[in-house]
Amino acid sequence: MESWCFVKHKASLLIFMMLLIFILGWAQGIYIEDERKALLEIKASLLEVSNFLNVENLLPTWVDHGKYCDWERIKCNMTSGFVTDLYLGNMFSKEKDMDDFYAFHRSHELIWPLNASLFLNFKELRRLDLSWNYIGNAFVSSGLERLSELKKLENLNLGYNFIETNIFPSLSELTSLKILNLTHVNINVYEMNSPPHDISEFQIPENLEVLDLAGNCYYGTLQMQGNSSQETYKLSRLMSLNLADNYFNESLITALATFTSLKTLNLQDNSLSRSFPSQEISELTNLEMLDLSSNSLNATPNIQDCKSLIRLERLESVSLRNNNFNKSIISCLSFLPSLNILDLSDSYNLGKVPNLPYLEVLILRHNNLNGTLPMEALAYFHHLKLLDLSFNNFVGSIPSTMKSLSSLQVVSFSHNALNGSLCNDGFCDLKNLQELDLSDNMFDGNLPKCFSGLLSLKFFDISSNQFTGIVPPSLIVNLTSLEYVDFSYNKFEGSFLFSLFSNHTKLQYFLFESGSEKIEVETEEPIGWIPMFQLKFLVLSNCIKKRPKGSVVPSFLLHQHKLRVLDLSCNSLEGQFPNWLLKNNKNLEILKLKDNFFRGVIHMRYKSNMKYLDMSGNHITGAIPENLQSFIPDIEHLNFSSNELNGVIPTSMLDLTELLTLDLSNNKLSGEVPKGLFTNLTSAIIIKLSNNTLYGNVLSGNLSLGRLETLQLDNNCFTGNISENHFMGPSILDISENHFTGTIPSWMSSTCDMWSSPLTYCELVARNNRLDGPFPCGTSFDFLDISQNSFSGPIPTFINMTNTKHLHLGSNRFTGLVPDAFQNLTSVLTLDISQNYLSGRIPEFLGELSSLRILLLGKNNFIGSIPEKLCQLNNVSLIDLSSNFLTGLIPRCLNNITGPKQLAFTQKFVFGYGVDSLWDDHISQYHIHETSFVDSMESDQFETRDEIQFTTKNNPLTYKGNILDYMWGLDLSSNKLTGEIPEELGMLTHILALNLSHNKLSGPIPVSFSNLSQIESLDLSSNSLSGKVPSELIQLTKLAVFDVSYNNLSGRLPERKAQFGTFSKESYEGNPLLCGAPLENNCMTTPQVSESSTKKDTEKWYDIDKASFYGSSCSTWFVFMLGFVVILYINPYWRRRWLEFVEECMYTCYYFLYDFVSSHCPTSPQHQGVQHFLPYNISYGGIPILE
User: Fold this and answer.
1) DSSP assignment string, 926-957
2) How far apart are CA 16 and CA 21, in angstroms?
3) CB under 8 Å to 1001, separation ≥6 — which residues?
4) Architecture of the domain delimited by 20-195
5) Percent of the chain scoring above 90 in pLDDT
6) Mean pLDDT of 475-497
7) Backbone angles phi, psi at 854, to 5 degrees
8) Which ranges of 275-343 would DSSP assign to H, the alpha helix?
9) Which ranges of the sequence are coiled-coil (predicted)?
10) What is the pLDDT of residues 244-287, one digit of tens each?
């Protein structure tokens, strides 16, 4: 009976178990089906965005059949089959560059409409990654707080999205979270489109171990609910906290005292100030890494507070870069018992290298450290592995004691002023060296052959030095660990065989931009060599000189398939556009082939991921292809300038929606600009169409310029009035050398005020158009050129002129005085108000503009003397005061103008294109080398070069750009200046052009002018100068134009030697008393004197030809008398006045004689008779006078 009951009970139990298994299986099937449906709905939500981005077939493996655990981006539990991990980050495969990511979102306002409630179906979900997508506020409002139902969710990543709403209340419910990443969760916050949020609203989940809130502009403190014991319990598990790039202040530090489990704390780039928080930090006894960089900490606590740091026994890494500490911070940090990584970069008051010999990593970049390298102090750093002293002011050579730092693995001395040879520097003994950066110094001599023994070397950068000789072949062959090599801008000689790298399997980056004509890179020897490396980054610019006939690009590139950056500029390469490069390298992003000899039309065959294409400076002909968008849809920077392209700009150019910069200048393009070019290219910030023959009313009508920051339309045939529409114009606008008419609209004169950033460079160039009327007052420009128009009225004044650097108002119709507001031009380099109708005196305050380089006031109506305050312009290089009504003497103090000490008109415009860090696995975990491709273009690429007119060599010449740094001239011609030429002008030893012509100057030509060793043009004509032409002027070997015509000079001309042998008689005409070649007047000589030098030495300035003197005097007298007689004959009025004057003189003489005789002789009959004989009255001037 019992047996039967047991069997019956067992059967029931078995049935129950089978039923339970069935129910569980059925439930699991339901859950699995729910997960499948949720995954397919997530894919469906991507459809709208993928269509907009033209991204085909996102998540192709996510189909409604098969096991979804095999789908991409999914990880399942091997037992239950449920989803545990969803990796949905960067769904649209956009490059992880925040600036580009944000720019695309801003231009397209793109948002992924993802519903948060879809994830509730994944009951076992542990990790959810949604970073680098276009997720917005709708994701939060669709039930983000309900994710708290996912009790196993531990890792949530929402970083790099566009969630503007306050996300903290929803996240506070997710109590199971251990890792929360909200880095840049609201990228819009940098545009100030949404207010930052108070972090005090965030209830931190009690299990949280890692919290990343970087880059959100949060503020406040971490306020916890409950008593202090509960707070400590809640925060006891938090080990990593990243609050970088926010608005937290020092009050946060106090709140962090309860975070006792913290191991890493990152507070860089916040608003911390005052003293280093040693006491507060000392409470975090488990801390291993501390980053307080880029704050405003500026004081060191007292020694007692510093001693509290002894408690931080685990703290190994401290970064305090970019603060305001002085050397006393070193004493405080010395109490850290385990410190081995220290970054004090950008601490300009540090003064010297810290005495912390137990360090392994020491980074002191940008500290203004000077003197020689402190090797004596560093000799005690026996454990040092990484030493970075770059971007300082160290001088001298590298001492041989460098070899004592035998543990060094990374060394960077770049961007200093170190010099000398490397032969005895001790580097060769550093066998553990993996990175060596000596770039941007002044090292010279040959590269040491012993460098070939540095077998661990991966990174080798010696660019921008003065190394000479050949690159030792053994150095290249032996260093097979090399990954990054840069030999650019040295003085190497001979031939460098690129095939020396043929056995290097790790080489990824090679740069060789040659600045020398003595070095050439041989890429084709031996013929047919095949490399074992796969390059990512190759720059061979201006160095490939010998190539087999018919070769277009180096043949070894046929074997490269991973190139991302290729620069073969300035190599005289020929042939058609190399399409095969795009076919072989699907990841090629940057291609520079500028300044070669590529010919033919642009014909692309393969679709590419290209972002940067530069074909400028070639001989490309034909029209711009209509189908560019099909082959380079992601292009961001396109440069076809300086070719021979013709035809119209195709409307298909509007389909390049990613385009940031477009340069089609210096071609033969014609026709009208396609409508929408400035608005449809919504990402474009720079468009340059200069120097073509484009026409039409491009700026008229209902105008909008989109997001453009730079627009250059100069040197075309554009016409019409400029639109009066009010909108945000580009900060750089060049419409010069066209046919625009009408007035300047108010938006154009106030464009700088529309740009929110005070650092924005503002420029307006409207030179040589047909614009008229008054120029509207507005915000000041950095560069303003409205010259050669018909603007009238008083000179305009602007708000905040302190930033103006170039002001060109010349060749207009401005009237009145120079405005007092010009004294605010404290940064001005160029001031041109010439060729107007300005009057009054030259203002004294112009002499207080200490930055001024070029002052052009010529061709106006200025009066008075030259202000002596102009002598205070020590940096000025060009002064033009010509063609005014200036009087008085030339100031002697002009010799105080010593000229500029540094360049002001030579500038670089820099684009940077980031490439992944080469050293992600760096032994120190400090990435001191972030490789990037930097394209440095001369200022005429996208920034207007300054341009002025100045008369030299008797011609009004135009000087533009870099040459202005080397021009030096003074023009005081065509005024009414008097007196002698000051001897002090001979101290202007760097002057190139001096013009004092057409004045009333007198006296001799100063002998001190022989000191003007650089002068090329000297014009003293049309004055009243006397004396000889100084023979010492023969020393002026660069003098090309010399003019002393129409003066009163005399004597023998200097010998026809050097430059004086090139001057014609026109240089001396109008001086009849000058003699000697090239004039026809021969100087009188005495043949009996055998030594001609004796006669020359005894000549006096007053020795003249008497025959010539008397002859010229008589001729002058005869001409004068003849003219006088003719006037009396012709004019009866003057003839009558002359006769009356003669009559008056006769009677005056008579009475004078009569009175004289009467007073000296006695009265006699004879005398009486004479008196009786006189008439009773006489007529004086027709009026009777009684006697």
Assistant:
1) ------EEEEEEETTTTSPPPEEEEEETTEEE
2) 9
3) 890, 977, 978, 979, 980, 981, 1020, 1023, 1024, 1025
4) Alpha-Beta Horseshoe (3.80)
5) 49
6) 94
7) -135, 125
8) 278-281, 303-307, 328-333
9) none
10) 999 999 888 888 888 889 999 999 999 999 899 999 999 999 99
Q: Encoding tokens for residue 156?
A: 């949530």
Residue with tokens 């002090």: 984
Element (H, E) at 37: helix 2-45
DSSP string computed for 617-671: SSEEEEPPPTTHHHH-TT--EEE--SSEEEEPPPGGGGG-TT--EEE--SSEEEE
Nearest residue to 363 via CA among 354, 371, 372:
354
List 662's β-bridge partners, or say none: 638, 687
User: Omega of the bond prior to 1078 within 30 degrees of 0, cis?
Assistant: yes
Side-chain half-sphere exposure of 539, counting CA atoms within 13 A = 17
> What confidence tens digit (pLDDT) does each residue in 996-1010 have?
999 999 999 999 999
CA distance 165 to 138: 9
The tokens describing 897, both together, are 């103008």
834 near 807, Cβ under 8 Å?
Answer: no
The CA-atom distances, in angstroms, between 456 and each of 116, 404, 436, 481, 1063 are: 51, 18, 11, 6, 67
- For β-strands 955-960 and 947-952, DSSP reports them as antiparallel
CA distance 711 to 764: 10
Per-residue burial over 166-181, b if 16 or more Cβ lie within 10 Å, else e, is: bbbebbbebebbbbbb
311-363 tens-digit pLDDT: 999 999 999 999 988 888 888 999 999 999 999 999 877 767 777 888 999 99
Q: Each residue of 431-478: pLDDT tens digit? A: 999 999 999 999 999 999 899 999 999 999 999 999 999 999 999 999
Tell the burial category of 1125 from Cβ atoms under 10 Å away from its Cβ (0-12, 13-18, 19+).
exposed
CA dist 743 and 1060 (Å) reads: 52
pLDDT band at 182 (very low <50, low <70, confident <90, very high): very high
The total number of residues written for the chain in this structure: 1187
1170's enclosing H/E stretch is: helix 1165-1173
Instruction: Decide if pLDDT at 677 tops 50.
Output: yes
Is the separation of the CB atoms in 685 and 664 below 8 Å? Answer: no
For tokens 């200046």, name the residue: 977
- Both tokens of residue 339? 């410190």
pLDDT band at 526 (very low <50, low <70, confident <90, very high): confident
Residues facing 326 on adjacent strands: 349
- pLDDT value, residue 1085: 56
Q: In angstroms, rounded to a whole number, what is the distance separating the alpha carbons of residues 311 and 286? A: 9
| Spatial separation of the C-alpha atoms in residues 75 and 911, rounded to whole Å | 41
| C-alpha–C-alpha distance, residues 505 and 782, integer Å | 51
Structure token digits, residue 1005: 């030509």
Q: What are phi and psi of 642, to 5 degrees?
A: 55, 50
Task: Give the pLDDT of residue 635.
Answer: 92
Question: Per-residue pLDDT for 1049 more than 90?
Answer: yes
One-letter identity of residue 663: D
Record the pTM. 0.77
Q: What are the backbone dihedrals phi and psi of residue 1027, each rounded to the nearest 5 degrees, phi first?
A: 85, -165
CA distances (Å), 879 to each of 808, 873, 990, in order?
Answer: 14, 10, 14
**Alpha carbon distances (Å) from 720 to 691, 703, 734, 773, 776:** 18, 13, 16, 15, 19
Q: What average pLDDT score do residues 614-636 get? A: 91
Residue-wise burial string across 690-706, b where 16 or more C-beta atoms lie within 10 A, e elsewhere? bbbebbebbbbeebebb
DSSP labels, 490-543 = S---EEEEGGGGTT-SS--EEEEE---SSEEEE-S-STT---S---SEEEEES-
pLDDT of residue 503: 92
Phi and psi torsions of 328, nearest 5°: -65, -20
Q: Is 460:486 a contact under the CB 8 Å cutoff? A: yes
Q: Which of the two residues, 245 and 1152, has the higher pLDDT score?
A: 245
